[in-house]
Amino acid sequence: MAASPAPTLAIEARGLSRVLPGPVPVTLVDDVSLGIAKGEMVAITGASGSGKSSLLYLLGLLDTPTGGSVWIDGRDMARLPPAEMAAVRLARLGFVFQFHFLLPEFSVLDNVTLPIRKLGRLSAGEVQARGEALLVDLGLADHMRKFPDQLSGGQRQRVAIARALANDPLIVLADEPTGNLDSRNARAVFDIFIRLAHEHKCALAIVTHEHNLADLADRRLVMADGRLEA
Amino acid sequence: MFRTKAKAMTLPLELSIALSHLLHRRRQTLISVLGVAMGVGFFIGISSLMQGFQHYFVEKVIDVQPHILMKDEFRVPEAQPVEREFSSAAIELGGVKPRDEVRGIRGARRILAEIRQMPGVHVAPTMAGQVLLRYGAKSVSVSISGIEPALDRRVTNLERDLTEGALDNLYTAGNGIILGVGVANKAGVGMGDTLSVISPQGVVLKMKVVGIFSSGITTMDNYDTYILLKKAQILHNRPNVINRLRIRLDDVEQAESLARKLEDRYGYRAESWKEASKNVLGIFVIQNGIMYSTVSAILIVACFGIFNVISTVVFEKTRDIAILKSMGFSEGDIRRIFLIEGLLAGLVGSVLGWLLGWGIVELLASIRFQMEGFVRTEGFVLYRTPIQYALGALVASASAILASWLPARRAARLNPVDIVRGL
Question: Does pTM surpass 0.95?
Fold first, then answer.
């Protein structure tokens, strides 16, 4: 049994592998080890099919590794039952995807407060206040009562970021968050991420194929054929 | 689309998501909810109708007929001497004729006295038989019971059911007869008319109509007539013979056990009211079977509707399910959302069904007509009980949850990675 990693690391992967079973097994992620500290922003780049998204899903406990382990805040996640993994995702992790995945029937504010209500630690009034504060912080003060289809692409993605931050997560994982945005909006979203890492002390892992944006991160990792390049 | 500000905030989270799904598929949801409502409504309507009729019939039977009737018959024919002698041999006897003796309950007076001693039991002697009534050119075959009015009024409600005349007229008139209203109509006689009563033994008596009764039970009103016990014995040429004991109990539910006890003790066939109405009660069982199958069929169709809506929602909302799961909703949470949807459809359908059922019952109750089946009534007899409402809603909600189980399970097992990656 390996020793617990240094406590300053928010998330750590040790020899992480993911192989799709089948007549011809496909290796998506191959023996990847990495650690991200609190307040650090890491960009993961690589050609499409290099396994960068698969790595992100493994880090985010959405997928189960075939080898190796993920440690979050010093705890090994490998042996956790699915329900507890869900609880970790709820309280510790935030996701931002290329598509915003906002619930169309719920207002912007209701979308953002959904994870807070699910966690159930705040009263109704506090939930409301926290949601509003997040939206104000992301420059969406005028759009709280609107519905997702009344917003622009950039605004929707900012709502999705606000939702990812709802429970004040330790780690935010973003999979091509700017993939559907023009360069101006993409830059704005990245600026938000940088601010988050530094102000909220989040660990940030961002998968992107835009090199100019990746250069803004504290550290840049490049993946090829499921492995991290040195 | 489902757009509310305050409402979504105050409802529990899973419930508000479930509601948003159902309202997203508004028309489909409405149709399946209406399906459930139909099932529940018709269940309430039909069961009120059927149970109403059944309760009414049983009430009437208990009210009008003796609870136990002891007859001068045996359930099994008496064993012949040769059968007793060779009990294990293969014997076939042909052409056994009944003994030519005056039938009747032997020692009836003693039995009568003994039964009268039992607490909560009333008994009256009867001499019953078949006769022909002749009035002018008309003749009607009826069953005639010779009774002692003083004793009989404690055993049946004949006196109360008399629409004309009085029970005591049997004592005062020289040869009085009381007819069922159906008999009177068939023979075309009224109060005070005199008709001829002809027995199979060939005795003819002129009798005067001194009473007409209407019990509500069709067979009784169409076939039963009453005269004094003594006159019946004369008519059938069986002096002092009693061939029926009519017994009434304070507690109706004791009828079957007491009937069995009496039969064991005296050997004579003793029929409880349940046994006497066995064929009708048997029809009720079939009736109930048909009712429950019909209602089940409606509910099954409604459940297909619910299954359909929720399957569609699961299919359309895969993205939402994926993000909820990545956000930290467990499989159980997701399953609960879709089961709640089924339950909601079931509950809303049930409430609408209650209204529909109530409407059907009130509509049926407002219809007036003459009905003559096993019983004679004006309009439908309806039985109203909250149990029907509770049962309908319970079955509907349980079926609705059952119908949503499969799509809910599929939703819970969706892998968010497959959906996130697919975009």
Answer: no
* Residue B341 CA: distances (Å) to CA of A118, A171, B278, B380, B408: 18, 33, 46, 38, 9
Lowest mean pLDDT among A67-71, B186-190, B249-253, B360-364: B249-253
User: Is the Cβ of B322 closer than 8 Å to some Cβ of chain A?
Assistant: yes
Q: Does B1 have pLDDT greater than 70?
A: no
Query: A118 vs B416: CB contact, 8 Å cut-off?
Result: no
* Structural domain range at position B149: 106-267
- Residues of A with Cβ-Cβ distance to B21 under 8 angstroms: 105
* Of B24, B331, B417, Cβ closest to residue A62: B417
Name the CA dihedral angle for B73, B75, B81, B87, rounded to a multiple of 10 degrees: 180
Closest CA to B70 of B216, B220, B261: B261
* Minimal-distance CA residue of chain B relative to A126: B9
Write down all domains in chain A, each with its CATH number in brackets: 9-228 (3.40.50.300)
| Residue B67 belongs to some domain of the structure | no
Same domain, B129 and B172: yes
Chain B residue numbers touching A119 (CB-CB < 8 A):
328
Domain boundary among B213, B245, B267: B267
Give residue B189's pLDDT: 93
Side chain identity at residue B216, one-letter code:
G
**CB proximity list for A136: less than 8 A, separation 6 or greater:** none
Same domain? B286 vs B262:
no
Query: For residue B69, is it within any domain?
Result: no
Does some domain include residue B276?
A: no
* Final residue of a structural domain among B198, B232, B267: B267
**Largest interatomic CA distance in chain A:** 55
- How many A×B Cβ pairs under 8 Å? 86
Q: Does A124 sit within 8 Å of B328, measured CB to CB?
A: no
When divided into structural domains, chain B yields a total of 2
The interface pTM score, or ipTM, of the predicted complex is 0.89
Q: What is the pLDDT of residue A211?
A: 85
DSSP helix/strand/coil, A52: helix
In a domain, B371, yes or no: yes
pLDDT along chain A (230 residues), means of 10: 60 91 90 90 89 91 90 86 90 90 92 92 90 91 92 91 92 89 86 84 89 87 87
Chain A residues lying within 8 Å of B5, measured CB to CB: 107, 145
> Are B230 and B292 found together in one domain?
no
Question: Is there a single domain that holds both residue B234 and residue B345?
Answer: no
d(CA A203, CA A205): 7
Give CA separation, B220 vs B65, B154, B183, B269, B337, in Å: 9, 18, 9, 21, 60
Is A105–B3 a contact, with Cβ atoms under 8 angstroms apart? yes
- Let me know whether B168 and B299 are in one domain: no
- Give A114's contacts in chain B (Cβ within 8 Å): 13, 327
Give me the pLDDT at residue A108, please.
Answer: 94
